[in-house]
């Protein structure tokens, strides 16, 4: 594909003229249903993070990121952040002209200095073409690349603007074909060919030098004059080729004999063209925007008329991206939605018997859409610029127009009085309007007037009753009696904004209770808990008995009703590209939905929900895995050597519709509950020993969880904590004890062995886990290692704890503190007021005292026998 650019002579040496460069660059896109000046575009420039506002091309890599080629490097966009790349990040040149996507997902890039590089995504990095020097030696400096294809055998094919033939370099760097300059005498005809080896690679061959291995050939004299802008595309649906040349385009039969020649009604210079899909093509113009045309050559749409467009690209969510030479890129979240701006916002919509659309505006103007046009004619204008109410009487084929506060004569009991108009009902029974507190209607040629105690917002007739929506709720007028229905159902105690009736059912919008469906024997609510965008509903349109369109203060819903009073709800809001919030009126004309809102007039096809509800790829992927603050390079199982290892998983989903906001869920065990988050990083450092399976999913636009990523995680015990090591130690200890008792007389005496044996056991236990007790001393909570305690004694309601060189005082009874120790077996009570730690005994003085930390501790007669048994058992004394 090709791309348009312009260069400043101060920045570019030896480049060809501006006209030549303009003529060769082309675009590719894949989107439909564009409207001329009415698309909703968001503009991104260098201020927002692009490398430059002079953008030549757009593509999307195999991870979903968008890439923009500019005159100052590449820019990557993930829906939130623009990331810039230049020579410092590995590019061969800062002026990137074109992206050429190959079937294997590799993106090849051409630069102004003829150096070619390629990449698949940022992770794999930018790689220079091995034979750039061969290209440089094979072509002059003024040759500008306008097409690039890599064949299955890794040969590189290049064509150049205004040049014949092509450059072919095989996988070993050998040049098999070179381009040449054309002769002036050859400009009266155009011969285009394609090789069987690369059938979609088109080159000019006016010299007829290649007669073999030709897959396709066009030889026509319709194309006169020299131009480097030539684009040949396959129209596979109609089995023909399409040629775009200068300001003209041609549809040519497979044998090249039948040529349809067309010239668009536009004087701007065509600088690019490409295929959209099987039904549409487009052409870009210098300062003329781009046109969309069908496969018959009929122009369907024209947009961004003042821009020089260099690329039109549809992303994976259906959004449209358009790059320009001077204004950066433009983004349209939902191209199927058209927006019309006027001096004031529309308040009401209606249509006539021929599906002509009428629009009433807040400033008192009434317009009608001109058939088969995007223009609107003015029918009425209020002198006082009061809001206008409209209602079309299909029986009388007459459009009623009433101004807010206009005087209206109401008749009752043959007495006339003046009231003010506050609306016209959609019901043809009330096309002459209603006032703030009265409704009037004809009954058997008699005009009746009914006074209502609250502000009226809408009225409608169903069977023999009249439903009246007011500020405080719903009323019913029947058999000459006005009755409030607020007590009949709590659904009707909020403001009623709109009432429509059809097939013995009334559909009522409320300001707080959502949408109410009232049938003969059934009343039920459809609200935000069921999936409606909001409980503040402003308008309802009954398309048929089963399809309702509901306007809210957060967008529009389509509700599909079923016979058992169940329903489905489709949603169109700002997330899907609808920028209006408070919907004031809805009308459907010839398969298109029209919305009146405070943000303007909107139109879209009813089929939009087929696109909105389709599941787009979210490109969920792992960005990186960090173990102990270092990247984990392996792509398979994540292995941690101990539970103390830190583990963080970073991931991303490329989304442009919602500003990069996505919902995720994850779990690390099959049976555990899902964890929900909007973060793009998860800390899994808490994992203990064992094997886990990390699973991650992202939610799509249909609220479905898709694109699961699975990763095995293994947390390995350190060898000294593994079961085999512990078992080995226990076996060795047992063996040691056995051998000792077997040969104790020859090796140790009993006393020495007992001391050593006891010390070894304590040492092993302390290495495995340091035991401690929490105490509160002097207002501070202290973690005290029990192996450091020599003895403790009671002092009334306190306990004094002694370590070597330090004393702690806690408020507690001595026996209570003893029971809190995790290793009570190490301590011995020698007196009613003293506990000592056995392995801290330094000296024993007869039966009266033991010495610990050079302190003499008395031994009570009560505990003497216990002390003797303990000392004999532990020390052989």
From TrEMBL:
**Record's keyword terms, sorted:** Membrane, Transmembrane, Transmembrane helix
State a single Gene Ontology molecular function.
DNA binding
Carries keyword ATP-binding? no
- Residue ranges constituting the HTH LytTR-type domain according to the UniProt record: 773-873
Q: Which residues cross the membrane?
A: 12-31, 724-743
Asked if Flavoprotein is a keyword of the record, the answer is: no
Kindly name one Pfam family recorded for this protein: Reg_prop
InterPro entries xref list:
Ig-like_fold, LytR-like, LytTR_DNA-bd_dom, Reg_prop, WD40/YVTN_repeat-like_dom_sf
Which named protein is this? Two component regulator with propeller domain
Organism of this sequence: Tenacibaculum skagerrakense
């Amino acid at each position: 594909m090709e791309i348009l650019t312009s260069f400043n002579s101060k920045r570019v040496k030896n480049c060809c003229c501006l006209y030549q460069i303009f003529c060769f660059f082309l675009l590719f896109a894949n989107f439909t249903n564009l409207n001329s000046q009415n698309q909703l575009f968001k503009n991104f420039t260098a201020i927002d993070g692009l490398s430059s506002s002079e953008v030549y091309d757009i593509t999307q890599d195999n991870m979903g990121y968008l890439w923009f080629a500019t005159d100052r490097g590449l820019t990557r966009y993930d829906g939130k952040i623009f990331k810039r790349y230049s020579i410092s990040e590995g590019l061969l040149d800062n002026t990137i002209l074109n992206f050429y996507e190959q079937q294997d997902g590799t993106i090849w890039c051409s630069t102004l200095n003829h150096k070619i590089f390629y990449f698949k995504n940022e992770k794999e990095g930018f790689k220079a073409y091995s034979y750039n020097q061969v290209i440089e030696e094979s072509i002059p400096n003024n040759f500008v690349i306008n097409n690039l294809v890599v064949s299955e055998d890794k040969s590189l094919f290049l064509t150049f603007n205004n040049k014949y033939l092509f450059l072919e370099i095989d996988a070993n760097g050998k040049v098999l074909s070179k381009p040449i300059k054309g002769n002036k005498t050859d400009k009266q005809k155009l011969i285009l060919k394609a090789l069987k080896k690369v059938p979609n690679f088109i080159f000019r061959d006016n010299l007829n030098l290649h007669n073999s291995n030709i897959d396709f050939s066009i030889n026509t004299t319709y194309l006169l004059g020299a131009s480097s802008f030539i684009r040949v595309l396959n129209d596979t649906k109609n089995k023909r080729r399409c040629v775009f040349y200068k300001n003209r385009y041609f549809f040519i039969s497979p044998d090249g004999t039948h040529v349809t020649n067309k010239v668009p009604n536009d004087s701007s210079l065509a600088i690019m063209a490409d295929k959209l899909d099987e039904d549409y093509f487009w052409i870009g113009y210098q300062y003329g925007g781009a046109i969309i045309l069908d496969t018959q050559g009929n122009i369907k749409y024209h947009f961004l008329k003042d821009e020089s467009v260099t690329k039109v690209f549809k992303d994976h969510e259906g959004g449209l991206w358009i790059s320009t030479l001077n204004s950066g890129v433009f983004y349209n979240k939902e191209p199927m939605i058209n927006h019309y701006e006027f001096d004031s916002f529309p308040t009401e919509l209606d249509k006539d018997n021929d599906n002509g659309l009428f629009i009433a505006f807040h400033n008192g103007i009434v317009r009608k859409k001109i058939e088969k046009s995007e223009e609107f004619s003015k029918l009425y204008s209020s002198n006082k610029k009061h809001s206008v109410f409209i209602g079309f009487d299909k029986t009388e084929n007459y459009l009623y127009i009433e101004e807010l506060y206009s005087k209206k004569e109401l008749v009752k009991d043959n007495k006339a009085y003046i009231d003010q108009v506050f609306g016209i009902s959609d019901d043809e029974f009330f096309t002459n309007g209603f006032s703030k507190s009265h409704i009037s209607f004809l009954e058997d040629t008699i005009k009746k007037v009914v006074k209502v105690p609250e502000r009226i917002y809408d009225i409608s007739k169903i069977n023999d009753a009249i439903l009246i929506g007011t500020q405080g709720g719903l009323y019913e007028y029947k058999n000459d009696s006005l009755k409030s229905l607020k007590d009949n159902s709590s659904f009707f105690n909020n403001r009623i904004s709109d009432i429509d009736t059809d097939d013995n059912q009334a559909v009522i919008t409320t300001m707080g209770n959502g949408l109410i469906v009232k049938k003969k024997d059934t009343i039920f609510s459809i609200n935000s808990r069921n999936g409606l965008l909001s409980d503040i509903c402003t308008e309802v349109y009954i398309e048929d008995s089963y399809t309702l369109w509901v306007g809210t203060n957060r967008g529009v819903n389509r509700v599909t009703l079923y016979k058992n009073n169940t329903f489905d709800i489709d949603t169109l809001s700002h997330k899907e590209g609808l920028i209006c919030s408070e919907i004031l009126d809805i009308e459907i004309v010839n398969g298109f939905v029209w919305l009146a809102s405070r943000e303007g007039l909107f139109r879209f096809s009813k089929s939009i929900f087929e696109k909105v509800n389709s599941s787009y790829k979210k490109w969920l992927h792992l960005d990186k895995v960090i173990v102990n603050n270092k990247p984990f390079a392996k792509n398979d199982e994540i292995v941690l050597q101990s539970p103390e290892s830190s583990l963080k998983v970073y991931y991303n989903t490329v989304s442009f519709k919602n500003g990069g906001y996505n919902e995720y869920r994850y779990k690390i065990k099959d049976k555990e509950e899902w964890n929900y988050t909007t973060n793009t990083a998860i800390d899994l450092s808490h994992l203990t020993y064992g094997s886990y399976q990390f699973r991650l999913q992202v939610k799509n636009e249909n609220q479905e969880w898709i694109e699961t990523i699975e990763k095995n995680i293994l947390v390995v015990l350190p060898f000294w904590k593994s079961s085999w090591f512990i078992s080995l130690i226990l076996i060795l200890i047992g063996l040691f004890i056995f051998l000792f008792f077997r040969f104790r007389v020859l090796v140790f005496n009993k006393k020495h062995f007992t001391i050593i044996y006891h010390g070894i056991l304590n040492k092993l236990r302390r290495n495995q886990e340091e035991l401690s007790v929490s105490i509160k001393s002097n207002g501070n909570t202290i973690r005290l290692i029990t192996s450091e305690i020599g003895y403790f004694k009671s002092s009334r309601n306190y306990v004094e704890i002694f370590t070597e060189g330090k004393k702690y005082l806690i408020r507690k009874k001595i026996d209570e503190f003893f029971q809190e120790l995790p290793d009570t077996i190490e301590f011995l009570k020698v007196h009613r007021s003293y506990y000592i730690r056995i392995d801290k005994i330094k000296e024993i003085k007869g039966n009266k005292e033991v010495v610990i930390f050079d302190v003499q501790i008395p031994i009570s007669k009560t505990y003497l026998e216990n002390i003797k048994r303990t000392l004999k058992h532990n020390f052989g004394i």
